[in-house]
Amino acid sequence: MNIDCYSITEEDFINEMEPNNNDTFDEYFLDSNLCVSTMIKKYDVPMLDNNEYMKKTKKKNLQCAVCGARAFGYNFDRITCESCKAFFRRNALKNIMELKCRFDGNCDITIENRRFCTYCRIKKCFAIGMLYEILSSKEK
Amino acid sequence: MNIDCYSITEEDFINEMEPNNNDTFDEYFLDSNLCVSTMIKKYDVPMLDNNEYMKKTKKKNLQCAVCGARAFGYNFDRITCESCKAFFRRNALKNIMELKCRFDGNCDITIENRRFCTYCRIKKCFAIGMLYEILSSKEK
DNA sequence: CGTGGTTCAAATGGTTCA
DNA sequence: TGAACCATTTGAACCACG
């Protein structure tokens, strides 16, 4: 986590932003009516380099592309652990205002800290390419 | 670190303040200019009975990393008791100048004296790695 | 058999009040 | 201040469909 950001309050952070300059995913804080997945699409969140996207063959000793935990297979089109799978299901379609980062929106996500920043965790889920389209239509 | 200390040193105290037999820790604390830990050391403060506390048998047998009290799990990413958890919530985001140590800023924190020096208690909370990042943003 | 979906106990941040 | 409580999130285990 980026502790340096702490001197800025969240309110300051939001106020500092220019209202009509929604160039990035993070600045989308200002514009609050869309869900995370829409935002990701609209603002073209950069994808991480995808060595993680292995051929769908071997299922042993896999590592979650989000947090690094042990993984047993694909979930929503990427190799992830069970907890990130459940997390993605629960959060991918939420309104972004429910998932604010307390810092600069670039928290590292690890197995130890993954539950401390839902914003950056879901952001990373999308960044590695997890597909919300696979979520059943009833939840959309 | 010597923030807002009184001028008397621990050594001065021990030399000049021989307690008489009627002195108790509590009486002394009322007019204290002295470090809690020093007082405790000098006046042989009776230990609280832990049996009551220990009776709450739960699954785990953990010890608070701040004060040593019985702990039941993680709070703010470290194993702590419920009281240090609540204390951290209340104080982690305060201005440090609101939390003055009367002494040298190095009070020992124990289950018995933890509430006597908020400065040193919060200092220890941070020293053991409690994460203020987990505090929800609305309190910042 | 793989993976999306479900369940639920455990964990833990937050609240209350004496 | 801290014991007791409450509410929400989590993730391991499981189910079931294709």
UniProtKB/TrEMBL annotation, chains A, B:
Keyword Lipid biosynthesis: no
Highest taxon of the lineage: Eukaryota
GO molecular function annotation: nuclear receptor activity; RNA polymerase II cis-regulatory region sequence-specific DNA binding; zinc ion binding
Keywords tagged on the record: DNA-binding, Metal-binding, Nucleus, Receptor, Transcription, Transcription regulation, Zinc, Zinc-finger
Ranges for domain Nuclear receptor: 61-137
Pfam families linked: zf-C4 (PF00105)
Record's protein name: Nuclear receptor domain-containing protein
